[in-house]
């Protein structure tokens, strides 16, 4: 049986707060829930096998812990391409 453990947050806050901060005063022109969901999925695609991202960005994985570079995971995600797909100004 594999034991899993909490690896903490992928970002310093929740994924929703991270997206809101990035979008700033323009957040209301975007589909926030869709951006957060796509951002979570894109992060998951970059994580090592066995590590998963849940809810607002909490990581879980096997114990003993798998070491990986969180910054590299986030750098591999094109956050602004995700945002562009959900910009209501572009779609209207």
Strand composition percent = 15-25%
SSE order, as H and E? EHHEEHHH
Q: What's the arrangement of strands in the largest beta sheet?
A: 1-3-2
Shape, principal axes of CA atoms: elongated
CA-to-CA gap between the ends? 51 Å
Share of helix, binned = 40-55%
Mean pLDDT over all positions: 93
* Number of separate structural domains: 1
Largest sheet: 3 strands, antiparallel
Helix vs. strand class = alpha+beta
Overall radius of gyration: 14 Å
Total number of strands: 3
Stretches where pLDDT falls below 50 for ≥5 residues? none
Counted by DSSP, the helix tally is: 5
Key features?
92 residues, alpha+beta, three-stranded antiparallel sheet, elongated
Short description:
With 92 residues, this protein is an alpha+beta fold. It contains five helices and three strands.
Please give a structural write-up.
There is one protein chain. With 92 residues, this protein is of the alpha+beta class. It has one domain. It contains 5 helices and 3 strands. The protein has helices at residues 15-23, 32-46, 70-75, 79-85, 88-91; strands at residues 4-9, 52-54, 58-62. A 3-stranded antiparallel beta sheet has the order 1-3-2. A hairpin with a 3-residue loop joins strand 2 and strand 3 (58-62). Helix 1 crosses helix 2 (32-46). The longest helix has 15 residues, at 32-46. The chain is elongated, with a radius of gyration of 14 Å. The protein starts with a strand and ends with a helix. The model has no long low-confidence stretch (mean pLDDT 93).
